Amino acid sequence: MAHSDIILDRLSKLHPRIIDLSLDRMWKILERLGNPQDKLAPVIHAAGTNGKGSTLAYLRAMLEAAGARVQVYTSPHLVRFHERVRLGPKGLVGEDEFAAALEECERVNAGEPITIFEITTAAAFLIFSRHEADYLLLETGLGGRLDATNVVRRPLATIITPISLDHASYLGDTILKIAGEKAGIIKRGRPCIISAQLPEVRELLDRTAAERLAPVSISGQDWTATEERRRLVYQDDHGLMDLPLPRLSGRHQIENAGAAIATLRHVPWKVDEAAIAQGLGDVEWPARLQSITAGPIAEAAPPGAEIWLDGGHNPAAGEALAAAMAELEEKSPRPLVLVVGMLTSKEPTGFFAPFAGLAREAIMVPIPDAEASFPPRELAAHSASAGLTTRIEPGVEEALRNLPRSDGPCRILICGSLYLAGHVLRLQEAVLE
């Protein structure tokens, strides 16, 4: 076990008995660390329910194609915790530096209650503040207003990606309550890029930005990104760009790429059309409709099977994934099989519903080493209630091995949780650096 894993295990025991979303613990530990959040490279801060990580991945790829040094903070990780802290051209944070920062945070926190996300975010800020960079791309963990990342007072810009129902027990039981929390990252006078939203959500975000004198750039109003003749066409007041389609699969990635391009309009670094096009081709973001063609997962599946891996886990993600599978079905018809594991904090029926009539069957599996994993039998009941033919298997590899070999090549979508996706990538011994 790595030294940092031992420290993380120790820090997890400081978790408050009741999670009260608050910035008080963050402000306290950051002050003891010398306020590293005030010593960061210019920050682009993203919140939303779906698409945050992909949008930031496009931004990173485009900025790097233009020669910028880009730090990135995202969560959760898939295989190693270090994935959350990317130090520009140096890649992921090294083990020694990460462990030292965790120990420094542990020392100044002095055993006081703190969530694992809060103290690791403080450690990340400490690390980022010690490395020169041109930009820091910062993803919220939960919500926005009281998220541990929302201590950056003057970000260069903020991004709100599509908002839907998720984490209702923490953020509110209506989409407008959740949107109100996400809108908390909008800062006075700083531009805010808003992806496609439900009308009532867009109105709330627009109103919040107006109250804070934050200029807005709204999808469908100030900019558009569409697919035309197998090309990505982006248009705003600056003009039109005819670009290659993104490397990441799925129609929803057109919107994510568009939000990234819209954000670049507010960045002082010169990013020309050639760099944007290169970024669309270079972008990497594992477990977002990731194609698996080799390794133990491919070997366990029937010969010729087409395998996709995605960490989407809420109803909006289910809609996007079903749309992507339907598009593939139009181009190359194959029976679709879902292999699904999900956490109990999610809403399964809404995730499964878009696949009714599209998937031949859905196979429920547990998520290894995840205490909050839905028992497959309980998850199967949600799947069946959404109209899917359902069965249970003890794991992903067993689910793939037990698929019929005589029905011709099938299409397999492993989905439902980033934790399940991380398990699959560990089986694949993925190299994410």
UniProtKB/TrEMBL annotation:
Its cofactor is Mg(2+). GO terms for molecular function: ATP binding; dihydrofolate synthase activity; metal ion binding; tetrahydrofolylpolyglutamate synthase activity. Pathway: Cofactor biosynthesis; tetrahydrofolylpolyglutamate biosynthesis; Cofactor biosynthesis; tetrahydrofolate biosynthesis; 7,8-dihydrofolate from 2-amino-4-hydroxy-6-hydroxymethyl-7,8-dihydropteridine diphosphate and 4-aminobenzoate: step 2/2. Residues 304-417 form the Mur ligase C-terminal domain. It comes from the Bacteria. The keyword ATP-binding applies. Belongs to the folylpolyglutamate synthase family. Functions in two distinct reactions of the de novo folate biosynthetic pathway. Catalyzes the addition of a glutamate residue to dihydropteroate (7,8-dihydropteroate or H2Pte) to form dihydrofolate (7,8-dihydrofolate monoglutamate or H2Pte-Glu). Also catalyzes successive additions of L-glutamate to tetrahydrofolate or 10-formyltetrahydrofolate or 5,10-methylenetetrahydrofolate, leading to folylpolyglutamate derivatives. This is Dihydrofolate synthase/folylpolyglutamate synthase. It comes from Lutibaculum baratangense AMV1.
